[in-house]
Amino acid sequence: MIMRPARAATIIPALFGLLAIGSIFVDLLPFLQGGTAWQALFTPDDSRFDQIFFHYSTLPRTAMAFMCGAGLAVAGAAIQTIFRNPLASPTTLGVGAGVELALTIFLVMAPASLAPFQDVFTLAGGMIALGIVYLIASGRSNATLWLILAGMIVNLLLHSATQIFMLFNQQYLDSIFMWGAGDLAQNGWDSACYLAPRLVLGIIAIFALTRPLDILALGDDTANSLGAPVKWLRLIILTIAIFITASIISAVGMIGFIGLAVPATLRFVGFTRSKSLLPMSLLVGGCGLVVIDYVMRQFAGTGGDIFPTGAATALIGAPFVIVILRKARIMPDGNANSQDHPADYNLAAKHVLMVLLFVGLLAGLALSLLVSLDGQGDVVFTPIADLFAFTSTVGDRAQRTLAAIVCGAALAVSGTLIQRVGHNPMASPEITGVSSATALAMIIAMVYFGIDGRTDLMLIGAVGGVIALMVLLGLCRNFSHAPHYLLLNGLAITAILGSVVRIAMTHSGTKATMLISWLAGTTYFTRMDEVIAVAMITAILTILTLLARRPLELASMGPDQAVSLGLGISMFRLAMMMGAAILAAVSTLLVGPLSFVGLMAPHLARIAGFRLAGAHLIGAILIGANVMMVAEWLARNILYPQQLPTGLIAALIGTGYFLVLSARRR
User: Fold this and answer.
1) H or E element: which one contains 111?
2) I need a labelling partner for 632 at 20 to 30 A (CA). Which of 54, 194, 438, 525 fits?
3) What compartments host this protein (predicted)?
4) What DSSP string runs through 428-440?
5) What are the tens digits of pLDDT across the range 222-242?
6) What are 272-283's pLDDT values in tens digits?
7) Hey, what CATH class is 62-329 in?
């Protein structure tokens, strides 16, 4: 449903324009009062620091803010038009993550002689990422929804790869992290001169294609009937939009959600034709980012600690996703979700499969303690006598392996509860915002309040996870028949919390390295007493959940059926979700926020045929524990003596699994 209030359509661009002009006027006001405005603008006095700072920092930063906001909004408007999807943008379709990974690799590994090819490299990264997303989503009965889900999968995969490069290049850690958060700070006009011609060419090219854009907005069938070369037009427009995005990310880093929120909002107030949408997107996007950056500059520390504008735009823009979801009709109906449930396969009898998984877990634990690699690819066997003597090496391996197994089990239970109670096989603690909220609560407690007690952090993290889940359930209370609504709102909440995490991380000082390693999911900092405590909490909550397996089975049928059978669905859902949040919190404290384990384990268990609630829980626990055990061994040995984060290996395994699953279920 599109709103068409003519007054709002006029007021919104005018308001942003006036706010941007006002912020520039406030910056220029001291020089106007002193009669030196012209001098500060064009020929600053070398003896006046205020003029030097304004001319070489404030002014180019404002120009960069306008160019970046305008470019991202125009690129987002073009992408939304050709995909006919108000949630499509360079951020949500994996383009930004692909460009970020490509540029990180280029900056760290490419020789200086290849510097002129940076644009080509980043453009290729964005195109490859979008190509993967498009291949996953194409051919689906609900391609609009799958486009966003595929973008989420690819985003997690590419961000995991980027984190690996960051962790192995500590000398670039601060600059890469600040750049990744979207740093508009300038110390001259070089970046503006680099970006301006690229944006001008790209924006002019998109403006020249307004008529083809409107034709593509009618749908492929209609466009083909009008004689338009749909595939070529889509490829050309996407290439231009990705070129604009790649140029901006190369210059200032990730600027989140401008490309999504601005064009989507303008569509809802009546700018539906490309002829009006594109120029309005340019104006509102550019002026909007100027205003946001002006506000962020007011929080800059005296030592030059600049607040990351890119993270702030994600914090401000992500709520627009929630608003758009309430207006855009991209949700399938209650029956459409059935096709997204994993099919069942009778791999073996259920009790036989459980025994095999349990035996595999025990055998894998023994091999994890006794077998390692030496960095040259050669296998090294630890004497069994060392195992019984429990040497320091075996003790360290046991501690880390048990931590991974316990976290895999905890996240498997958490994911199973969220999927069954939420009636959504694609939901998980990582995607619904629980893990992000837990991590954020702990980081704020550590960075801003100096709390480092593990018990205190565990309680704080659990509170954060519960609050995030209650907010999510509150947003979805009127959409019980659209299970994917919970998923997409969860993605929006995750984006909001992730942006706050980036903001908090920029103030973490000397703790940055440790926190980034922890955020990537590492078992390196675990202690055996913590492993035992988390194992006990997981065991208690798992037993309580198994005792409630009958009402859990009823809740899996959907709210209407559960209520008709006498289950108080609201209170039961809240209790189960709180248990899921606690499990996610304790596992996050132990090894950091892990990606895809809580999603993949219950998904695989269901595919294996564990349908009933009790069997589903046990099967997910065994699968989650095995996957995390393998991930921990690979993280510890694959690049020995360097240590990869277990969470990143688990994310790579999980995203690889879902890419294969998506391809097979086309």
Assistant:
1) none
2) 438
3) Cell membrane
4) -TTTTTHHHHHHH
5) 888 877 888 888 888 888 988
6) 888 888 999 999
7) mainly alpha
